[in-house]
Design brief:
392 residues; alpha/beta; Rossmann fold; Rna Polymerase Sigma Factor, Chain: A; 47% helix; binds NADPH dihydro-nicotinamide-adenine-dinucleotide phosphate
């Protein structure tokens, strides 16, 4: 059954990265609640067939490919419909800036920074899946959120969990936040196995069905490191108050510990449609097809400390968080290049942390006061990381 969210018009939604895993799950939910939502704009990069199909199915007003060379293909795929086609990174930003009640920021990587910022600048409610934009430009982003009166709703399951149990009115009562981590496909693997790990093994996540980049990030645990930085910007806590706990069942999505010893957690089946639905309907709730938790059937929930020896990416991200803004940009850009090199089978799995560490060692501690500076540091790092891969 579809519940109307408002007495008035359906909520209008734009999806940045509609052809990805977050985008596809968002569309799935919109189609289950046709009376509650309508679609304004959809954006993608190269998957023109799926983009056009989604645009037709949802009745979107605009479909955008970030790749200018695919404009004609998109136009052709949309022929006979009233859907406008556009192409190029600027067109993606324009789509984000179009009036819509809600924007899902579901582009992968630093490519999501400027489109997400465009939505923020016009004061939208933004469902934030693209963690890389906060990692690269957390402070700049938050000052724009404040200036424009935008609302950031965390979609990452861990941050969405914390958002649901964090007492923002009385944050002095919070002693720490605990990000849970599944441990990924190599949680129990020895170093010899990890050195030889293939992209196929690395993207085969035990609990979550996600895009390739975040799946590799989960396997290296860089994902948890990026999430620590994301949490630092989303919640009023210090770096020292953010802890990581491995919880292989991915049922407790994260926790907040209070000074009186109380620990509040959000639980659920590992299905991204729950946090996506939370953000889409906020502050109300809508139904999802996510299987309900059966804790009796599950029986046992287990926890362990992360192993920083086998998962050095987590340690590197922790130190980048402590060091400050430019280190996080370098960490993210080096990781994006290294993960792409690994997926293309140019480097091994354990080369990913080596490349990130080498880039961090060469980074200068520079103040970051503008998005242009973020882009400069990002581009410089990508060149250095690519050179290291060539040498390897
Ligand atoms: P996917 O790889 O599945 O999808 C990425 C989307 O971004 C696609 O629509 C892709 O288009 C588009 N895209 C890729 N490159 C560009 C570019 N240069 N410019 C514009 N658009 C681009 O990623 P996910 O959905 O897995 O992840 C998206 C974000 O959400 C990431 O930041 C991830 O960390 C975060 N996240 C994802 C979760 C998940 O369950 N998947 C969970 C929590 C967070 P095309 O398909 O045409 O190439």
């Amino acid at each position: 059954m579809s519940l109307p969210l408002h007495d008035t018009a359906p909520r209008s939604v734009s999806i940045l990265g509609s052809t990805g895993s977050i985008g596809g799950n968002t569309i799935d939910l919109l189609q289950r609640h046709p009376d509650s939502f309508c679609v304004t704009a959809l954006t993608a990069n190269r998957n023109i067939d799926l983009l056009a199909e989604q645009a037709r199915q949802t009745g979107a007003k605009l479909a955008v490919t970030a790749d200018p060379s695919r404009y004609n293909a998109l136009k052709e795929a949309l022929s006979g419909s009233n859907i406008r086609a556009a192409a190029g990174p600027e067109a993606v930003e324009e789509a984000a800036a179009m009036p819509a009640d809600f924007v899902m920021a579901g582009i992968v990587g630093a490519a999501g920074l400027e489109p997400t910022l465009a939505a923020v600048k016009r004061g939208a409610i933004v469902g934030l899946a693209n963690k890389e934009c906060l990692v690269c430009a957390g402070e700049l982003m938050l000052s724009e959120v404040k200036r424009a009166g935008a609302t950031l709703l965390p979609v990452d399951s861990e941050h969405n969990a914390i958002f649901q149990v964090f007492d923002f009115e009385r944050d002095s009562g919070v002693s720490k936040i605990i990000l849970t981590a599944s441990g990924g496909p190599f949680r129990c693997s020895d170093m010899t196995t990890m050195v030889k790990a293939t992209p196929e093994q690395a993207v085969d996540h035990p609990n979550w069905d996600m895009g390739a980049k975040i799946s590799v990030d989960s396997a290296t645990m860089m994902n948890k490191g990026l999430e620590m930085i994301e949490a630092f910007y989303l919640f009023p806590v210090s770096a020292g108050q953010i802890e990581v706990l491995v919880h292989p069942q991915s049922v407790i999505h994260s926790m907040v510990e209070y000074i009186d010893g109380s620990v509040l957690a959000q639980l659920g089946s590992p299905d991204m449609r729950t946090p996506i639905a939370y953000s889409l309907a906020w502050p109300e709730r809508i139904s999802t097809p996510t299987p309900k938790l059966d804790l009796a059937k599950m029986g046992t929930l287990t926890f362990e400390k992360p192993d920083l020896e086998r998962f050095p990416c987590l340690r590197l991200a922790q130190s980048a968080l402590e060091e400050g803004a430019s280190a996080a940009i370098v960490l993210n850009a080096a990781n994006e290049v290294a993960v792409s090199g690994f997926l293309q089978k140019n480097i091994g799995f354990m080369d990913i942390p080596r490349i990130v560490e080498s880039c961090l060692e060469r980074a200068e501690a520079a103040p970051v006061t503008s998005i242009d500076r973020v882009k400069e540091i990002d581009s410089e790092t990508r060149v250095i990381a690519a050179e290291i891969i060539d040498k390897l």
